[in-house]
Amino acid sequence: MLKTLKDLFDKLNTSLSGSAALSPAEEAHTLQLATAVLLVEVMRAEPAMKDAERDAIIQALRRKFTLEDDEIDRLFELAHETARTAYDYQRFTRSLNDRFTQEQKINVVEAMWEVAYADHHLDAHEQHVISKVAGLLHVTHGEYIAAKLHAQETMQHKRMTEAKG
Predict the structure, then answer these.
(1) Cα–Cα distance between 92 and 118 in angstroms, integer?
(2) Residue 126 in contact with residue 116, Cβ under 8 Å?
(3) Which DSSP symbol is given to 127?
(4) Which pLDDT score, from 0 to 100, does residue 5 have?
(5) Residue 130 C-alpha from the chain's centroid
(6) CB-based contacts of 126: which residues, under 8 Å, 6+ apart?
């Protein structure tokens, strides 16, 4: 179970800055937070935050990490607060670059595209955030485009399924 929101926020802020050695559990929390913050940044790129984008972030976090619903909710809240006060993406992408495989990094970029497409509108600011993060994660242009196309296809399929049901 995650610690209280404030305790975890304080601990992860210290660990993301690289000034503390981490236990395996703390390292896992750091990766979860870094991933969640990058997803939240896509949502925050548009002035109006939409429920569809929040839902896309929650779904992406569920797919990526084995967490209970209350842990996902706390992670989202923590990521939103962290993103609000973050001044760059590098402290988050550095954690992912150090510990994620190339495929895992591509999956993060794809999840970012899913968040961007969740509200049926791709904003230029969202596209800029994803492009910037993909570059920082060393995702090639071809991988970036493939992730975008796969996310488009996934979101279109989801919309068609929802329309039928």
Answers:
(1) 23
(2) yes
(3) H
(4) 46
(5) 10
(6) 42, 45, 46, 115, 116
Confidence at residue 22, expressed as pLDDT on a 0 to 100 scale: 67
For 106-132, write each residue's pLDDT tens digit.
999 999 999 999 988 889 999 999 999
| Tokens 């981490």 sit on residue | 22
Instruction: Give the other-Cβ count within 10 Å of 48's Cβ.
Output: 7
CATH code for the domain defined by 5-164 = 1.10.3680.10
Q: What is the DSSP letter of 130?
A: H
116 Cβ neighbours under 8 A, 6+ residues apart:
42, 45, 53, 122, 123, 126, 127, 130, 151
Enter the tokens of residue 1: 């179970």
159 pLDDT above the threshold of 60: yes
Q: CA nearest 143: which of 133, 152, 134, 130?
A: 134
> Which pair of tokens denotes residue 66?
């084995």
Residues 133 and 147 sit within 8 Å (Cβ to Cβ): no
pLDDT of amino acid 104: 95
The domain spans of the chain are 5-164
